[in-house]
Backbone:
């Protein structure tokens, strides 16, 4: 889940990283009061979860409190990329000597967090990496072992920063790395991290994304920030297909048929098991397939739930066939899933043998499951067939059908 | 009574035994049996949820309950 900037700044502040004396409000008159308290030029920033605020006019500069109020009135009415602002952030216009970048992001390939640091901040880090690669330092670290300052020092020093700046930056980068781990973030970014004329450093903007599954571990923080339980804070609204998927998952307590995500391909996926969904989705893509959806099924769902998910996917416009695949399952019964997906076909007056491109779920009760699949003529595979080979066979069938 | 995959039959006198009906309702983890004062009723909508645990066979007198796998023809009874 994504945080608004004013929330991300508060998280940064609580971590002990210096921030400006900013204020958040939904009221233009209060913006004037905040600007008067700040006492000097201010920046009025629209609080939306979308990028492109500056180009859209969502960031305005004011020299007086009155001007801040006028800008606030305009910015509060300004829709940016289809989003109305949650409010505005009133920030002192800082007297900057240099802008830096520091971010911590989860590296899914390395399966570790990575610190990215640059003495060139205020612009996209991707642009810096392309134009001045020697000005971008990267350093992975363990999210299990305690974080040590030397890791921060290494990554900062690798970009040529030395002396007093290095010493002042190390605790900031360290606190950000610890924040990332402790708060289960997938992204913790300060850009720009401003060096003021007096030599001190202050976070001028921050972006935070928290792992959705970790929300339950941070209820107190979310409550403090005013994040309601029903706020998904996803990058986009759920589609009707995805909402229907949630309804399938909620139909009974047994097992999981969750995280249904819509894509626009022709191969429907009923996939799962201990990370198997991600692997299988990638396998289908690697084989040239075009998935119609992503989902995670497992935990021994009822026949009814497996049937509901399969029906949802089978009825999705553009879906020619479904592939029912999992890694080796121990806590999900193969025969129960087989019953569910076949029942879905039958209830939709579809031929299971034609609609199910492949059924590759080895594991508990597989012999019983294979008896069912045999009866309906569905192609199935046991554990001797790899996930990638199963994906290949499914994609091949879709190709033959197209 | 038949589902798509599973058939369950409660035979003769056993089907009218209210005490047995209550026992079957208690033991079945997927609510296939419903106990009534006049005996046992089968919840047809749950037949295909049968997990083949055999608890109903254990709870009933020998031969009173029969579970059939319609996809293979195999019959489970005691």
Residues:
């Amino acid at each position: 889940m994504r945080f608004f900037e004013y929330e991300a700044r508060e998280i940064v502040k609580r971590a002990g990283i210096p921030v400006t004396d900013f204020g958040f409000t939904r009221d233009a008159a209060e913006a004037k009061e905040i600007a008067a308290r700040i006492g000097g030029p201010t920046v009025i920033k629209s609080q939306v979860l979308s990028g492109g605020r500056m180009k859209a006019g969502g960031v305005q500069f004011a020299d007086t409190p009155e001007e801040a109020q006028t800008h606030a009135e305009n910015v509060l009415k300004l829709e940016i990329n289809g989003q109305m602002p949650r409010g505005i952030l009133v920030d002192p216009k800082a007297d900057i000597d240099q802008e830096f970048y520091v971010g911590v992001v989860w590296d899914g390939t390395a399966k570790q967090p990575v610190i990215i640091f640059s003495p060139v901040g205020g612009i996209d880090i991707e642009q810096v990496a392309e134009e001045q690669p020697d000005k971008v330092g990267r350093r992975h670290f363990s999210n299990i072992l305690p974080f040590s300052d030397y890791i921060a020092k290494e990554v900062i020093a690798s970009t040529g920063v030395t002396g007093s700046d290095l010493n002042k930056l190390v605790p900031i980068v360290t606190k950000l790395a610890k924040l990332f781990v402790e708060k289960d973030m997938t992204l913790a970014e300060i850009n720009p991290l401003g060096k003021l004329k007096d030599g001190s450093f202050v976070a001028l903007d921050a972006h935070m994304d928290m792992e959705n599954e970790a929300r339950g571990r941070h209820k107190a923080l979310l409550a403090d920030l005013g994040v309601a339980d029903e706020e998904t804070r996803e990058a986009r609204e759920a589609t009707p297909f995805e909402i229907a998927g949630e309804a399938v998952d909620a139909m009974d307590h047994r097992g999981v048929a969750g995280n249904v995500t819509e894509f626009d391909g022709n191969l429907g996926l009923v996939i799962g098991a201990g990370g198997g969904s991600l692997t299988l989705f990638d396998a289908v893509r690697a084989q040239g397939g075009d998935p119609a959806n992503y989902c995670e099924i497992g935990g021994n769902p009822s026949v009814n739930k497996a049937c509901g998910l399969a029906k949802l996917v089978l009825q999705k416009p553009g879906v020619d066939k479904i592939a029912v695949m999992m890694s080796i399952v121990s806590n999900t019964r193969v025969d129960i899933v087989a019953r569910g997906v076949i029942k879905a076909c039958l209830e939709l007056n579809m031929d299971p043998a034609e609609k199910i491109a492949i059924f590759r779920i080895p594991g508990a009760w597989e012999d019983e499951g294979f008896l069912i699949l045999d009866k309906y003529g569905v192609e199935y595979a046991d554990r001797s067939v790899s996930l990638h080979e199963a994906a290949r066979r499914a994609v091949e069938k879709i190709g033959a059908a197209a | 009574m038949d589902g798509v995959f599973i058939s369950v039959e409660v035979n003769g006198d056993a089907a009218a035994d209210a005490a047995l009906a209550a026992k079957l309702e208690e033991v079945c983890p997927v609510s296939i049996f419903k106990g009534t004062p006049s005996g046992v009723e089968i919840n047809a909508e749950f037949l295909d949820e049968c997990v083949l645990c055999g608890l109903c066979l254990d709870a009933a007198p020998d031969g009173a309950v029969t579970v059939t796998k319609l996809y293979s023809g195999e019959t489970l009874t005691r």
Q: What stands out?
A: Residues 50 and 313 of chain A are 30 Å apart (CA to CA). The domain at 21-92 of chain A is CATH 3.30.1490.20 (Dna Ligase; domain 1). The radius of gyration of chain A is 26 Å.
